[in-house]
Amino acid sequence: MKHPDLSSHAVMHKMLGDEKRLHTLRFLYEAGLCVCDLETLLDSSQPAVSQSLRKLKQTGMITSHKHDQWQIYTLNKEYAHYDQLVQILQQLPSAKEQVDEITASGLRTRCSIEITEIRFLEKS
Amino acid sequence: MKHPDLSSHAVMHKMLGDEKRLHTLRFLYEAGLCVCDLETLLDSSQPAVSQSLRKLKQTGMITSHKHDQWQIYTLNKEYAHYDQLVQILQQLPSAKEQVDEITASGLRTRCSIEITEIRFLEKS
DNA sequence: CAAGTATATAATCATTTTGTTATATAATCA
DNA sequence: TGATTATATAACAAAATGATTATATACTTG
């Protein structure tokens, strides 16, 4: 019995199958973010966030680029299942409020880059 | 930082994140199937299939009912994220051929119930 | 240059997961 | 009734996972 290869699909869902990673992707759907922002948003330790991001990056779901002293992570538009991923993320409650909130409140203690600026940078 | 609860979503994707389970759901999207059919289709052992189905059932994604000597498993239309699940399954290559094939070929050695009959039973 | 910030990674550990083997149960059949 | 079929489940082992602790690197700043 021959099966079509669904491994890349399975991998995508496996990544979505962890609540922290699901939140991470939901946040990155709103804006590119640095590791320290995600620490705050996810309420996780720096190594936990960093390794979680590495795993997502290895699957091709996200990418990163350096902006000043920060490594900015974003969804990867070149990802094989990007459209499907976005469709899934769109059906979750939006993370916009939370993402904006860390700028508004004093929580963004370390990384000072503005969310709006990050949103701008991504498009260029 | 308050987060919406995405645990039920995460659980769904975790289930989809295993290739055997992903195939299982793809098969059940085509027809209700008994355990022995799934053994053939998935090329897995009986206990492996049975435990995999139990896990899917515990999440609410599938249900089962007895038909003659067989336990017929189907997607659960009452599942909280049923529409989303179907949307995801629709984007995968169809399993129709494979599901029909086990009836056509002599592979369906044990369970003799016809796929078409199962499809019919589900609707009633 | 010393200190601090941002991030990555390695080692380790606890937990979870998945499959196998073995066994139980219920129904059917010869 | 004894054998077979269909399925479930428990016990166990192997593998994968996710987090923490500790450390490394690169950059910036006083």
Q: What composes the largest sheet of chain A?
A: 3 strands, antiparallel
Succession of helices and strands of chain A: HHEHHEEHHH
Number of domains of chain A: 1
Overall pLDDT confidence of chain A: 90
GO molecular function (chains A, B): DNA binding; DNA-binding transcription factor activity
Protein name (chains A, B): ArsR family transcriptional regulator
Keywords (chains A, B): DNA-binding, Transcription, Transcription regulation
What does this structure look like?
The structure is a homodimer of 124-residue chains. Chain A is mainly alpha-helical. The first copy, chain A, has a single domain, classed as Orthogonal Bundle (Arc Repressor Mutant, subunit A), CATH 1.10.10.10. In chain A, 56% of the residues lie in helices and 11% in strands. Chain A has 7 helices and 3 strands; from the N terminus they run H-H-E-H-H-E-E-H-H-H. Chain A has helices at 7-16, 19-30, 35-42, 46-58, 82-90, 96-104, 115-123; strands at 33-34, 62-67, 70-75. In chain A, strands 1-3-2 form a 3-stranded antiparallel sheet, with helices on both faces. In chain A, a hairpin with a 2-residue loop joins strand 2 and strand 3. In chain A, helix 3 crosses helix 4. The mean pLDDT of chain A is 90. At the A-B interface, helix 1, helix 2, helix 5 and helix 6 of A face helix 1, helix 2, helix 5 and helix 6 of B. Chain B binds a DNA duplex (30 and 30 nucleotides) through residues 18, 20, 34-36, 44-52, 54-55, 68-71, 110-111.
